[in-house]
Specification:
Blueprint: H1 19-26, E1 32-33, H2 45-54, H3 67-77, E2 84-87, H4 90-101, E3 107-112, H5 116-125, E4 128-133, H6 141-146, E5 152-158, H7 170-179, E6 185-189, H8 204-210, E7 214-219, E8 232-235, H9 238-247, H10 255-265, H11 268-291, E9 303-307, H12 318-324, E10 327-328, E11 330-331, E12 340-344, H13 348-360
Parallel strand pairs: 1-10, 3-4, 3-5, 5-6, 6-7
Antiparallel strand pairs: 2-8, 7-8, 9-12, 11-12
Bound molecules: pyridoxal-5'-phosphate.
Pyridoxal-5'-phosphate binds next to helix 4.
Length: 374
C-alpha cells in the first residue's frame, strides 16, 4: 500500500501502561498509576447518574452541534455559543487546528519539550516545528516571540506545560500576545488550568476575548475525571470555530460525552474541592520527595517532574524498575526530560505507595538487563 510519506516520521503515541496489564505482567496485587495525569477519583455522582439516564438514547446520533453543551460553556465563560468549539478531547481540537491551518512549509512555534501532539500535527502536514528550548523548564516567551516569522501559522503555549508542570503568568502571556502578529493563531493549551492555584489562573480569558487570534483550549479530561469519555473545548473567534466545523467529522463528540460534560460543568463547587485536594497532595509530595533528597520542578498542574538522574544506571531503567514494583510513572527520557520522571498527583495513599517504591531504589540496585530491582 502507498501510505503518505509523512507517516515515516510519525511515531504512534505511547500512552502510560494500563493498570491491569502491569498487574498481570508482574503478578502484582497492588498497582498505582501515576503516568497519565488523570484525576484519581471517578466523575461526580451527578455526572454518573446523567450518563446512565442517557443510555437509552444511544440508538440516536448525538447533536452534531453540541448545542446544549456549547450554550452551557458559553454561559459559563460569558461568550457567544459561536465562540465555543468542542472536540473528542482537546487533543482532537489540536489536530483539527492543524487540519484547518497547516500546509507544507508553514511554521509552528512551540516550546521544547512540550505536549507531543503539537509536533505530530506539524509532521502530518509537512509543516516545520520551530522548537524553542524551555528556560528553567519554563516557556521562554521572549524567545518564542522572536522565533515567529512570516511563515508562522500557529504558536502553542502549553500552560501549565506538559511535561514540566511549569506556569507562565497571564501578564507574561499578554506581553507575548502583543508581540505576535494578528494573523498568527496563538493557542493557549490550558488542559491543566483547573489545577492552577496562582491568583491569575483565569486572567487569560479576557485576553482571549479581546484578541481574534487567541484560542484557549481546556478539557473535561483532567479535574472532572472524564478522560475516558473524551470532551475538550476551545474558546475562540467565531471564524476559528467555523474553520474547525469544516474539517471535523459530523458527530465528533458522542452523546454520553456531551451529557457528562454538560452536567459536570454545573458542579464548580466540586471542582474547587478537587483543586484543593490536588494542591494539598502536590505540596505533600514535594515535601516528602525533598525529605528523600529528590528535587522536583515547581508545578501548578496535577503532575510534576522528579529528579532521578542520580538513581540508576542505566538511567532509563528507573521507571521500568518502579513499574515492576507496581508504581507506574512516566519516563522523562521519552518526553524530552532525560533523567527525570513525570509523576501524576494521585490520592495521598497512591502517593505514599509511589514514595515507598522510589525510596527503595538504590543507585546500584538494578539488574541492567531487566530493569528490575535485584
Ligand atoms: C497539554 C495537554 N493538552 C491536551 C491534552 C489532551 O487532553 P484530552 O484530549 O484528553 O482533552 C493533554 C492530555 O494529556 C495534555 O497534556
Amino acid at each position: 500500500m502507498r501510505f503518505i510519506p509523512e507517516l515515516d516520521r510519525i511515531v504512534p503515541y505511547e500512552p502510560g501502561a494500563p493498570l491491569e496489564l502491569v498487574m498481570r505482567r508482574f503478578g502484582l496485587a497492588e498497582v498505582v498509576k501515576l503516568a497519565s495525569n488523570e484525576f484519581p477519583l471517578p466523575p461526580f455522582d451527578e455526572v454518573k447518574a446523567a450518563v446512565i439516564a442517557a443510555l437509552d438514547d444511544l440508538n440516536r446520533y448525538p447533536d452534531g452541534h453540541a448545542t446544549d453543551l456549547r450554550a452551557a460553556l458559553a454561559e459559563h465563560y460569558g461568550r457567544a455559543p459561536a465562540e465555543v468549539t468542542v472536540g473528542n478531547g482537546s487533543c482532537e481540537l489540536i489536530m483539527l487546528l492543524g487540519d484547518a491551518l497547516l500546509e507544507s512549509g508553514d511554521e509552528v512555534v512551540l516550546g521544547d519539550p512540550s505536549f507531543v501532539v503539537y509536533n505530530d500535527i506539524c509532521v502530518r502536514h509537512g509543516a516545520v516545528a520551530v522548537a524553542v528550548p524551555l528556560r528553567d523548564f519554563t516557556h521562554d516567551l521572549e524567545a518564542m516571540a522572536a522565533a515567529v516569522t512570516a511563515r508562522t501559522k500557529i504558536v502553542f503555549v502549553c500552560n501549565p506545560n506538559n511535561p514540566t508542570g511549569t506556569y507562565v503568568s497571564a501578564a507574561a502571556i499578554e506581553r507575548f500576545v502583543d508581540q505576535v502578529p494578528e494573523d498568527v493563531l496563538i493557542v493557549l493549551d490550558e488542559a491543566y488550568n483547573e489545577f492552577v492555584t496562582a491568583s491569575d489562573s483565569q486572567a487569560t480569558l479576557p485576553l482571549e476575548a479581546r484578541h481574534e487570534n487567541v484560542c484557549i483550549l481546556r478539557t473535561f479530561s483532567k479535574i472532572y475525571g472524564l478522560c475516558g469519555l473524551r470532551v475538550g473545548y476551545g474558546l475562540c473567534a467565531a471564524a476559528v470555530r467555523t474553520a474547525i466545523d469544516k474539517v471535523r467529522q459530523p458527530f465528533n463528540v458522542n452523546r454520553l460525552a456531551q451529557v457528562a460534560a454538560f452536567e459536570a460543568l454545573r458542579h464548580q463547587d466540586q471542582v474547587e474541592q478537587r483543586r484543593r485536594q490536588n494542591a494539598a497532595v502536590r505540596d505533600y509530595m514535594v515535601e516528602r520527595l525533598a525529605a528523600l533528597g529528590r528535587a522536583t520542578v515547581p508545578s501548578e498542574a496535577n503532575f510534576m517532574l522528579v529528579d532521578t538522574r542520580d538513581l540508576c544506571k542505566p538511567q532509563d531503567k528507573v521507571c521500568a524498575a518502579l513499574m515492576s514494583m507496581g508504581a507506574i510513572v512516566r519516563d522523562g527520557n521519552a518526553l524530552g526530560c532525560p533523567g527525570w520522571a513525570r509523576v501524576s498527583v494521585g490520592t495521598k495513599e497512591e502517593t505514599d505507595f509511589f514514595l515507598a517504591k522510589l525510596g527503595s531504589l538504590e543507585p546500584t540496585s538494578l539488574d541492567e538487563n531487566e530493569g528490575r530491582p535485584s
